[in-house]
Amino acid sequence: MLEAIITYEFLQNAFAAGILIGLIAPLLGAFIVVRRLSLIADALSHVTLSGIAASLFLSKTFVMFNGLNPLWLGMGFSVAGSLLIERLRAVYKHYQELAIPILLSGGIGVGVIFISLADGFNTDLFSYLFGSVSAVGRSDLYLITGIAVIVLLIVFLLYKELFLLSFDEEFGKASGLSTKALHLIFMVMTALVIAASMRIVGILLVSSLMTLPVAAAMRLAKGFKQTIGLSVLFGEIAVIVGLISAFYLDLAPGGTIVVSSIIILLAAIGYRNWFAVKKS
Protein backbone atom coordinates (compact mmCIF):
# COMPACT_ATOMS: atom_id res chain seq x y z
CA MET A 1 0.00 0.00 0.00
CA LEU A 2 2.85 2.38 0.86
CA GLU A 3 4.39 1.78 -2.56
CA ALA A 4 1.08 2.59 -4.25
CA ILE A 5 0.76 5.83 -2.27
CA ILE A 6 4.27 6.86 -3.32
CA THR A 7 3.56 5.98 -6.96
CA TYR A 8 0.09 7.44 -7.52
CA GLU A 9 -0.71 11.11 -6.95
CA PHE A 10 -4.44 10.50 -6.51
CA LEU A 11 -3.72 8.21 -3.54
CA GLN A 12 -1.44 10.84 -2.03
CA ASN A 13 -4.24 13.38 -2.36
CA ALA A 14 -6.85 10.99 -0.95
CA PHE A 15 -4.83 9.98 2.10
CA ALA A 16 -3.64 13.51 2.87
CA ALA A 17 -7.20 14.83 2.59
CA GLY A 18 -8.53 11.88 4.60
CA ILE A 19 -6.08 12.48 7.46
CA LEU A 20 -7.10 16.15 7.61
CA ILE A 21 -10.79 15.29 7.54
CA GLY A 22 -10.28 12.59 10.17
CA LEU A 23 -8.89 15.36 12.37
CA ILE A 24 -11.36 18.21 11.92
CA ALA A 25 -14.65 16.31 11.49
CA PRO A 26 -14.58 14.48 14.89
CA LEU A 27 -13.02 17.56 16.51
CA LEU A 28 -15.99 19.69 15.57
CA GLY A 29 -18.32 16.73 16.02
CA ALA A 30 -17.50 16.62 19.74
CA PHE A 31 -18.96 20.12 20.17
CA ILE A 32 -21.93 19.27 17.94
CA VAL A 33 -22.85 16.13 19.92
CA VAL A 34 -22.51 17.88 23.28
CA ARG A 35 -24.80 20.66 22.05
CA ARG A 36 -27.32 18.03 20.89
CA LEU A 37 -27.15 19.33 17.33
CA SER A 38 -26.13 16.09 15.60
CA LEU A 39 -28.84 16.42 12.94
CA ILE A 40 -27.44 19.77 11.80
CA ALA A 41 -24.69 17.89 9.97
CA ASP A 42 -27.35 15.93 8.06
CA ALA A 43 -29.25 19.10 7.19
CA LEU A 44 -26.17 20.94 5.93
CA SER A 45 -24.96 17.90 3.99
CA HIS A 46 -28.24 17.87 2.03
CA VAL A 47 -27.91 21.60 1.37
CA THR A 48 -24.38 20.92 0.13
CA LEU A 49 -25.85 18.31 -2.22
CA SER A 50 -28.01 21.06 -3.71
CA GLY A 51 -24.90 23.16 -4.34
CA ILE A 52 -23.05 20.26 -5.97
CA ALA A 53 -26.04 19.41 -8.17
CA ALA A 54 -26.43 23.09 -9.10
CA SER A 55 -22.75 23.29 -10.04
CA LEU A 56 -22.99 20.17 -12.22
CA PHE A 57 -26.10 21.59 -13.88
CA LEU A 58 -24.40 24.93 -14.58
CA SER A 59 -21.27 23.27 -15.99
CA LYS A 60 -23.41 21.15 -18.27
CA THR A 61 -25.65 24.02 -19.41
CA PHE A 62 -23.26 26.98 -19.67
CA VAL A 63 -19.79 26.82 -21.20
CA MET A 64 -18.45 29.51 -18.87
CA PHE A 65 -18.97 27.19 -15.87
CA ASN A 66 -17.17 24.17 -17.36
CA GLY A 67 -14.08 24.67 -15.22
CA LEU A 68 -15.98 25.37 -12.01
CA ASN A 69 -15.02 23.08 -9.14
CA PRO A 70 -18.36 21.84 -7.66
CA LEU A 71 -16.76 21.98 -4.22
CA TRP A 72 -16.88 25.79 -4.29
CA LEU A 73 -20.60 26.07 -4.96
CA GLY A 74 -21.31 23.23 -2.54
CA MET A 75 -19.36 25.08 0.12
CA GLY A 76 -21.25 28.30 -0.67
CA PHE A 77 -24.61 26.55 -0.32
CA SER A 78 -23.48 24.94 2.94
CA VAL A 79 -22.38 28.24 4.47
CA ALA A 80 -25.61 29.91 3.31
CA GLY A 81 -27.56 27.03 4.86
CA SER A 82 -25.74 27.48 8.18
CA LEU A 83 -26.67 31.17 8.20
CA LEU A 84 -30.29 30.30 7.38
CA ILE A 85 -30.43 27.83 10.27
CA GLU A 86 -29.35 30.56 12.66
CA ARG A 87 -32.00 32.88 11.21
CA LEU A 88 -34.72 30.24 11.56
CA ARG A 89 -33.63 29.49 15.12
CA ALA A 90 -34.20 33.17 15.89
CA VAL A 91 -37.62 33.14 14.20
CA TYR A 92 -38.76 30.03 16.08
CA LYS A 93 -37.33 30.94 19.48
CA HIS A 94 -39.39 28.38 21.39
CA TYR A 95 -39.14 25.67 18.73
CA GLN A 96 -35.57 26.09 17.51
CA GLU A 97 -35.26 22.42 16.48
CA LEU A 98 -37.69 23.16 13.61
CA ALA A 99 -34.87 24.91 11.76
CA ILE A 100 -33.16 21.58 11.07
CA PRO A 101 -36.01 19.67 9.33
CA ILE A 102 -36.98 22.81 7.41
CA LEU A 103 -33.49 23.15 5.96
CA LEU A 104 -33.05 19.40 5.45
CA SER A 105 -36.31 19.20 3.48
CA GLY A 106 -35.42 22.28 1.45
CA GLY A 107 -31.94 20.92 0.71
CA ILE A 108 -33.33 17.62 -0.55
CA GLY A 109 -36.01 19.35 -2.64
CA VAL A 110 -33.65 21.80 -4.34
CA GLY A 111 -31.08 19.04 -4.84
CA VAL A 112 -33.59 16.76 -6.58
CA ILE A 113 -34.65 19.62 -8.89
CA PHE A 114 -31.07 20.34 -9.97
CA ILE A 115 -30.32 16.62 -10.39
CA SER A 116 -33.38 16.34 -12.65
CA LEU A 117 -32.31 19.41 -14.64
CA ALA A 118 -28.85 17.88 -15.06
CA ASP A 119 -30.50 14.73 -16.51
CA GLY A 120 -30.11 12.54 -13.46
CA PHE A 121 -27.18 10.87 -11.75
CA ASN A 122 -23.75 10.62 -13.32
CA THR A 123 -20.34 9.42 -12.21
CA ASP A 124 -19.35 12.83 -10.80
CA LEU A 125 -22.47 13.14 -8.67
CA PHE A 126 -22.13 9.54 -7.45
CA SER A 127 -18.59 10.26 -6.23
CA TYR A 128 -19.85 13.28 -4.29
CA LEU A 129 -22.67 11.27 -2.74
CA PHE A 130 -20.56 8.37 -1.48
CA GLY A 131 -16.97 9.58 -1.74
CA SER A 132 -14.19 8.50 -4.08
CA VAL A 133 -10.52 7.64 -3.63
CA SER A 134 -9.61 8.76 -7.15
CA ALA A 135 -11.71 11.95 -7.30
CA VAL A 136 -9.64 14.07 -4.89
CA GLY A 137 -7.56 16.47 -6.99
CA ARG A 138 -4.70 18.66 -5.91
CA SER A 139 -6.96 21.73 -5.87
CA ASP A 140 -9.39 19.85 -3.59
CA LEU A 141 -6.51 19.00 -1.26
CA TYR A 142 -5.41 22.65 -1.07
CA LEU A 143 -8.98 23.73 -0.27
CA ILE A 144 -9.38 21.03 2.41
CA THR A 145 -6.01 22.05 3.91
CA GLY A 146 -7.12 25.69 4.07
CA ILE A 147 -10.38 24.76 5.78
CA ALA A 148 -8.54 22.51 8.25
CA VAL A 149 -6.14 25.33 9.19
CA ILE A 150 -9.05 27.76 9.71
CA VAL A 151 -11.00 25.30 11.89
CA LEU A 152 -7.97 24.36 14.01
CA LEU A 153 -7.07 28.01 14.58
CA ILE A 154 -10.60 28.99 15.59
CA VAL A 155 -10.99 26.01 17.95
CA PHE A 156 -7.59 26.76 19.50
CA LEU A 157 -8.29 30.48 19.95
CA LEU A 158 -11.94 30.15 21.03
CA TYR A 159 -11.84 26.82 22.89
CA LYS A 160 -13.00 28.24 26.24
CA GLU A 161 -15.82 30.19 24.62
CA LEU A 162 -16.98 27.21 22.55
CA PHE A 163 -16.77 24.96 25.62
CA LEU A 164 -18.93 27.36 27.63
CA LEU A 165 -21.39 27.75 24.76
CA SER A 166 -21.72 23.96 24.54
CA PHE A 167 -22.21 23.20 28.23
CA ASP A 168 -23.80 26.32 29.75
CA GLU A 169 -25.03 28.87 27.23
CA GLU A 170 -27.08 30.79 29.79
CA PHE A 171 -24.06 31.28 32.03
CA GLY A 172 -22.11 32.40 28.97
CA LYS A 173 -24.71 35.06 28.22
CA ALA A 174 -24.65 36.23 31.83
CA SER A 175 -20.85 36.44 31.66
CA GLY A 176 -21.05 38.79 28.67
CA LEU A 177 -20.21 36.16 26.06
CA SER A 178 -21.33 37.09 22.55
CA THR A 179 -23.32 33.91 22.00
CA LYS A 180 -24.84 35.01 18.68
CA ALA A 181 -21.43 35.62 17.13
CA LEU A 182 -20.13 32.32 18.50
CA HIS A 183 -23.19 30.47 17.16
CA LEU A 184 -22.54 32.00 13.75
CA ILE A 185 -18.83 31.12 13.78
CA PHE A 186 -19.61 27.58 14.91
CA MET A 187 -22.24 27.04 12.22
CA VAL A 188 -20.00 28.37 9.46
CA MET A 189 -17.18 26.09 10.65
CA THR A 190 -19.56 23.13 10.56
CA ALA A 191 -20.62 24.04 7.03
CA LEU A 192 -17.00 24.28 5.86
CA VAL A 193 -16.05 20.93 7.42
CA ILE A 194 -19.03 19.22 5.79
CA ALA A 195 -18.13 20.69 2.40
CA ALA A 196 -14.50 19.63 2.83
CA SER A 197 -15.37 16.10 3.94
CA MET A 198 -17.72 15.17 1.12
CA ARG A 199 -14.95 14.32 -1.37
CA ILE A 200 -13.74 11.48 0.83
CA VAL A 201 -16.76 10.41 2.89
CA GLY A 202 -19.56 11.54 0.58
CA ILE A 203 -22.38 13.99 1.17
CA LEU A 204 -24.85 11.39 2.44
CA LEU A 205 -22.42 9.88 4.95
CA VAL A 206 -20.37 12.85 6.16
CA SER A 207 -22.43 13.35 9.32
CA SER A 208 -21.42 9.83 10.40
CA LEU A 209 -17.76 10.82 10.63
CA MET A 210 -18.76 13.76 12.83
CA THR A 211 -20.83 11.68 15.26
CA LEU A 212 -19.80 7.99 15.32
CA PRO A 213 -16.20 8.55 16.57
CA VAL A 214 -17.58 10.91 19.21
CA ALA A 215 -20.16 8.33 20.28
CA ALA A 216 -17.38 5.76 20.68
CA ALA A 217 -15.16 8.22 22.58
CA MET A 218 -17.96 9.10 25.01
CA ARG A 219 -18.11 5.48 26.14
CA LEU A 220 -14.46 5.57 27.19
CA ALA A 221 -13.49 9.18 27.99
CA LYS A 222 -13.50 10.70 31.46
CA GLY A 223 -13.68 14.35 30.38
CA PHE A 224 -14.39 16.59 27.41
CA LYS A 225 -10.77 17.02 26.34
CA GLN A 226 -10.28 13.27 26.46
CA THR A 227 -13.47 12.88 24.43
CA ILE A 228 -12.02 15.17 21.76
CA GLY A 229 -8.70 13.30 21.75
CA LEU A 230 -10.30 9.86 21.45
CA SER A 231 -12.78 11.14 18.84
CA VAL A 232 -9.93 12.35 16.64
CA LEU A 233 -8.02 9.08 17.17
CA PHE A 234 -11.05 6.95 16.25
CA GLY A 235 -11.82 9.23 13.30
CA GLU A 236 -8.30 8.86 11.92
CA ILE A 237 -8.37 5.07 12.35
CA ALA A 238 -11.75 4.87 10.58
CA VAL A 239 -10.57 7.05 7.68
CA ILE A 240 -7.27 5.22 7.15
CA VAL A 241 -8.80 1.73 7.44
CA GLY A 242 -11.71 2.83 5.25
CA LEU A 243 -9.49 4.26 2.51
CA ILE A 244 -7.25 1.18 2.44
CA SER A 245 -10.32 -1.10 2.28
CA ALA A 246 -11.89 1.03 -0.46
CA PHE A 247 -8.68 0.90 -2.52
CA TYR A 248 -8.21 -2.87 -2.34
CA LEU A 249 -11.89 -3.82 -2.57
CA ASP A 250 -12.77 -1.17 -5.19
CA LEU A 251 -15.56 0.28 -3.04
CA ALA A 252 -16.81 3.79 -2.30
CA PRO A 253 -14.72 5.05 0.66
CA GLY A 254 -17.73 6.63 2.36
CA GLY A 255 -19.23 3.23 3.09
CA THR A 256 -15.98 1.62 4.26
CA ILE A 257 -15.19 4.60 6.53
CA VAL A 258 -18.64 4.52 8.12
CA VAL A 259 -18.51 0.73 8.62
CA SER A 260 -15.07 1.11 10.22
CA SER A 261 -16.54 3.78 12.53
CA ILE A 262 -19.40 1.48 13.48
CA ILE A 263 -16.98 -1.35 14.29
CA ILE A 264 -14.99 1.02 16.52
CA LEU A 265 -18.22 2.15 18.22
CA LEU A 266 -19.33 -1.46 18.86
CA ALA A 267 -15.86 -2.29 20.22
CA ALA A 268 -16.01 0.71 22.57
CA ILE A 269 -19.48 -0.24 23.80
CA GLY A 270 -18.41 -3.88 24.22
CA TYR A 271 -15.28 -2.92 26.14
CA ARG A 272 -17.22 -0.58 28.39
CA ASN A 273 -19.81 -3.25 29.17
CA TRP A 274 -17.12 -5.88 29.75
CA PHE A 275 -15.22 -3.53 32.06
CA ALA A 276 -18.40 -2.73 34.00
CA VAL A 277 -19.20 -6.45 34.45
CA LYS A 278 -15.64 -7.22 35.49
CA LYS A 279 -15.62 -4.34 37.98
CA SER A 280 -18.88 -5.45 39.55
UniProtKB/TrEMBL annotation:
Instruction: Give the UniProt subcellular location, in the record's own words.
Output: Cell membrane; Membrane
Protein name in the entry: Metal ABC transporter permease
- Tell me the superkingdom of the source: Bacteria
Query: For this UniProt entry, what's an example GO CC term?
Result: ATP-binding cassette (ABC) transporter complex
Keyword terms of this UniProt record: Membrane, Transmembrane, Transmembrane helix, Transport
Please give the family membership noted in the entry: Belongs to the ABC-3 integral membrane protein family.
Residue ranges that the Swiss-Prot or TrEMBL entry lists as coiled coil: none
Principal localisation? membrane
- Organism, by scientific name, is Jeotgalibacillus alimentarius
Locate the transmembrane regions by residue number. 14-34, 71-88, 100-121, 141-159, 180-197, 228-249, 255-275
How this chain sits in the membrane, per its record, is:
Multi-pass membrane protein
GO biological process entries: response to zinc ion; transmembrane transport
Query: Transmembrane helix among the record's keywords?
Result: yes
